[in-house]
Amino acid sequence: MGHHDDLRKFITDLAVVHGRVVLSSGREADWYVDLRRVTLHHRAAPLVGRVLCDLTADWEYDAVGGLTLGADPVALSMLHAAAATDRPLDAFVVRKAGKAHGLQRRIEGPEVAGRRVLAVEDTSTTGGSVLTAVEALREAGAEVVGVAVIVDRGAGDAVRAAGLPYRAAYTLADLGLVA
């Protein structure tokens, strides 16, 4: 099996949780995809980086990140996957709100102003989190080239409506789930 198939198996085996849950969007669902069980797993995390780097290989960007917490391990996995290929790729973290102390930065890590960046998320239902990150990145002077997620729960239309290219490594159908 290849990286894509291997990661799908980790997602279906470790991350798909059945039972009534309330999503960050406020919607209720009969199952949840808890991707932190994958993005923070010693064998699955490297696959996340490889799969998303492959998914976005034709996009030009030199930094990756998104809204903390879902995007953080995704961005770091991509940073490490890129380093293994000698591709320079920085990672950054977008806070939900600016800090009131220290440097008072909303975006942590290497500077994003004037850079082409990729916004990522582990999974997205409405696009709200990733679009919040996109807004902060644009305010900081970054050029957002697109959005990539591991699993799309339906955010594609909202992200594209905001004028951004959108890619997902897996759809719900790919995982055998019904929306």
**Helix share, percent:** 25-40%
CATH class: Alpha Beta
Separation of the first and last Cα atoms: 27 Å
Q: Trace the largest sheet across and list its strands.
A: 5-4-3-6-7-8
The geometry reads as globular
Strand content: 25-35%
Mean pLDDT: 93
What CATH architecture would you give? 3-Layer(aba) Sandwich
The tally of strands reads 8
Cofactor: Mg(2+)
Function: Catalyzes the transfer of a ribosyl phosphate group from 5-phosphoribose 1-diphosphate to orotate, leading to the formation of orotidine monophosphate (OMP).
GO molecular function: magnesium ion binding; orotate phosphoribosyltransferase activity
GO biological process, one term: pyrimidine nucleobase biosynthetic process
Summarize the structure.
Helix 3 (44-55) crosses helix 4 (72-83).
Notable features of this structure?
OPRT, alpha/beta, orotate phosphoribosyltransferase activity, two-stranded antiparallel sheet, 179 residues, PRTase-like
Report on the structure:
Helix 1 crosses helix 3 (44-55) and helix 3 (44-55) crosses helix 4. The strands form 2 sheets. The chain has a 6-stranded mixed sheet, sandwiched between helices. Strands 1-2 form a two-stranded antiparallel ribbon. The chain is an alpha/beta fold and 179 residues long. It has a single domain (46-175), classed as Rossmann fold (3-Layer(aba) Sandwich), CATH 3.40.50.2020. 40% of the residues are buried. The longest helix has 13 residues, at 3-15. The protein contains 6 helices and 8 strands.
